[in-house]
Fold:
Amino acid sequence: MPSRLIIVLSVLYPVVVYVGGRYFPPQALALVLALVVLTRRTGAFGVRIGPWSVACGLILAVLAFGLNDALPLKMYPVAVNASLLAIFASSLRYPPPIAERIARIRVPDLPPEAVAYTRKVTQAWCVFFVANGLVALWTATRWPVQAWFYYNGIIAYLLVGVMFGGEWLVRRRVLAGYHW
Structure:
């Protein structure tokens, strides 16, 4: 399956679960989740999908299929946030942080101020993934599927955009005198 289609399915996953849930049993949607998990090679920020992330996604797909229940399908955004949190947090412990790695693609010779700033950005993303993951968990377990869809399929993406845009504005201000 072409990777672009998998990326589209991944991004539209909440739509697939919400709309698909009206027409298909959770078992059929579990197969979509398994397809996405098994064929996607990179995740957000170009980070390679690790074996633990794949295993977690497959466990959710197997549970949804075996139980014929949508709850494991709705837990996938929680798993994605937990995986990204683990990757970003581990990069703080075992440098360079993810934001620095991404910055060095564009500017291999970052000034020390930029390196310090990228550490703070990585920490900010860790906080974001904790908060977003907790809300995703709350919506999956306590809210109706329509509210789960609105948060995980629309609001969470808007919040990611706000984080990116806000970070870009802060970076321009903080590092105004540096060329990187």
User: Anything to note?
Assistant: The chain is about 80% helix and 0% strand. The chain has a mean pLDDT of 91.
